[in-house]
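Hi X.,

You mentioned you wanted examples for the new student's onboarding notes, showing what a folding record looks like when two proteins sit in one file. Here is a clean example. The first protein comes first, with its sequence line followed by its structure tokens.
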Amino acid sequence: MAGLTILDASVLIAYFGAGDAHTEHAVGLLERADDLAVSTITLAEVLVGATRSGRARELLEALADMEVEEARLGPNAAEALAQLRIATGLRLPDCCVLLAADATNATAVATFDDRLAKAAEQKGYAAASGLPD
């Protein structure tokens, strides 16, 4: 995938989750991507499990090694998220992924969530799922 790809928590959780049903697909997806970013909220979502198990620093270092950038949502994020929530019907964490794509001029959204992928495509982003058809 050319350009910047915004990562959903589902992809990162699968990538770092040994034995996750989507791990193989997440690895392939991330290997094909050029530039990677994750919204601040998505990063926090992924960090919950790592923090609980005492591995937050390890996860952050792995993301830094992969050159995954943190995409901040901007000063008007609350209003933009509310508008996205109303327009798409998605949960707020998924809206954070779309807002991060908007804020960074991303070209793609990587997710294993069908509803988020569809919403990303409707907004003009390539939606990379990495899952076989």
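Then the second protein repeats the pattern, sequence line and then tokens:
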Amino acid sequence: MLNLQQVLPFVSQIATTAGEYLIQHLGKIKEVNFKGERNLVTEIDTASEQIIKHRLKEQFPEIAILGEELGGETAELFWVVDPLDGTNNYFHSYPVFCVSIALVSTNLPLLGVIYDPTRKELFTGLKGEGAFLNGKRIQVSTVDNLKTSLVATGFYYEFKNQKDTNIEHFVDFLYEVQGIRRSGSAAIDLAYVACGRLDGFWELGLQPWDTAAGFLIVEEAGGKVTKFDGSSFDIFYPQIVASNGKIHSAMLNVLNRRKF
């Protein structure tokens, strides 16, 4: 039986090490491959994932790993790894990217770590133990009116192939909120909901490595995370709505104005 309180510092150190590797190689990309028209992967993504995978396998050889670049497997207990969330930002030396690692049991995260190396911010969460930023407890915002809220979203890489591109939702929210941000990193957006910098976040087309750690950290900070219909969130489901809880129903109302 894992002692998560003891595991968390180890995973935090792995995320920090990988994040510092990203900083060391920022602006030095030599190889780029495209997984789609806009979805790219660099040798830095792969190297960062290898750092993380090696350390996890060395310490926890029995736990499976699911990762963005190398694929992997799921089991009753498994790691979910994003070695570089915000690859397009990183490619352009735009300083919004992070490392995200979660430990998941039967599709529910037990431990989550998000490390933003450009700001040296480490967001962590343990199931039932709260959420923290650089060791200090964090909570979601207290904003209770959509009109005064700051929210964030993102868009599919290959949005031209999607029936619901999220553009219509974006336009609907423009008329309802104080502001919308698009960082290019879902993990950072979720971390910012958790610490109150954002009041809400929604997106479509995400993968488990985009959301697993942030999902847990938001909930442990007192927030709410669901699908667009308000039902319980699943890291393998591509819709996510995260909020401080107080504006959640209002966000769902905006998202469900249009049926696709």
